[in-house]
Structure formats: structure tokens, C-alpha cells
Amino acid sequence: MRSSNPVFSRRGFSRDNGGYAGFNAQQPQAGGPAVGTNPYATGNPYATNPYAPQDTALGAPQQARGNVMTIDDVVSRTAMTLGTVVLTAVLAWLLLPVDPESLGKSYGIAIGAALVALVLSLVQSFKRKPSPALILGYAAFEGVFLGVISAAVSTYIADGVVIQAVLGTMAVFAGVLIAYKMRWIRVTRRFYGFVMAAAMGFMLLMVVNLLFAVFSGGDGLGFRSGGLGILFGVIGIVLGACFLALDFKQVEDGITYGAPREESWLAAFGLTMTLVWIYLEALRLLSILQGDD
Q: pTM of the entire structure?
């Protein structure tokens, strides 16, 4: 099966010979894939990587030859990508006012930035190799959008709600990471299928709600306000947490099976997209709760 995150769509997560994530069911040894298996026959998506761990004739421990993805690579690239989002968000907050006279112009810039970010993310998703320029460009424009939206919510709905949303996003990330490392969350084919079905249903309902809002005015079907809005906000955050688990699985598999180091940019891209999703859902949920006070 494939990851929920579009930047991972060319990688594993397919059932193969009883295994998951596109790999053989045999457990990897300390240095790489199980000794004695042919990486081209087991479905390893990184088998063609010349730097991947190689089998040895006598079954000796396998050693990577370098230039493979490590957790440090993923952490550093993710820090760069998220740092770009935060930096441009802060600049947008400071430089694009959301007072009544300037709100329309700032919103226009924010929507334009969101569209550019969407285009850049789609271009990167269809590229065979990660492009740091595209990924950082996406992060920069996404940050502009988040900065304006966050400033508007903080100004017109509740001061301090942005900090709460940031802390909530961090809490979700930490919680899912701990649960994944402790194996309280197990990413299996059934888990993936459930998450994807729920995500497709969620997105379909949101599109229908948006169409009703555009053509009939108001809040459409009410999925983004009141009791239904709170329910769908919680569902959105839970889905984001599930996406994080799938992303962690992809990163773990990439490191275990010797993905090229450049793949760490895709990992950073995917994690950033998921965290942006969680932040927006948390901000929306808190806005509804604060607005009802």
C-alpha cells in the first residue's frame, strides 16, 4: 500500500509476500535487509540504490557504503523546511496587516501564496527526484498563507489561539512519535486502508461543504461551525495524527533499507505538509471553541 502523503506516493507500502511497506516479510538484520535475500526480488523500493547495504556471500554483517539517508538527515532537512515556514509566517504576520482597511489585500496575497504553494507541492510530487528549491519554495509560500490566516484569527476571534494551536500541533507530533516508537501504533495494511478511506470521505465532505457555501452563501452544510464543526475539527486532527504515523513508517523503512540521502528532503516535505494540516485543523477547532464563548 502507498503512503497517505503524496510526496511518498512513489515508495512502498504494498503487500508483498506477506510483508508490509513493499518489503519481504523477513525481518531486517542489524546492518540492513535479511541476509541471503535478493533485494531485487523482495520488493525493496531502494534496491537500485548503489549505496544500499549489500548481501555478503558468507553471511557476514552488512555495512552501508555511505550516502544513505539517516535520521540526522531527516531531522536537519525537516528543521530547515519547518524553519522556512515559521520564518515566512512571522514576516507575513508583521508585514501584511489585517486591519479592516488592509484585510482584503492581505487575504488576496495569502490566497495567492497558498495557490503557489499548492502548485509547487504538486510539481514536487510528480518529480522523480526531490528538489530542495521546490520544497523550500513550497515552505516559504505556505508560511505566508499561514501567517496571514493566523494573524486574522488572532485579531478577530481570540488573542492567543495561535499559540494554543502551535502547542497542540507539537503535542500531537510528540504523542504520535512516542506511540510509534513504543509500538502502540502499528502501521499495517488494514491501518493504511482505514486511514485512506477516512481521509477520502473527510475531504469529499469538505469539498461538498465548500461548494454549498460558495453557491448558497453562509457556512454551507455547517461542517465548519457549531457542534458539527467541532466534531470535524477533531476528526481532522486525528487524521493528521494517522498521517504522521504513516510518515514515520516511511522514514523508518527508508533508513532501514538504505534510501539515498536525497530522500531525506522528501521525508522533510511530507512531515511538513502533515504538520501544516494538523496546525490548520487545530486552529480551526480552537477558533470555533473560542468563538462560541
A: 0.79
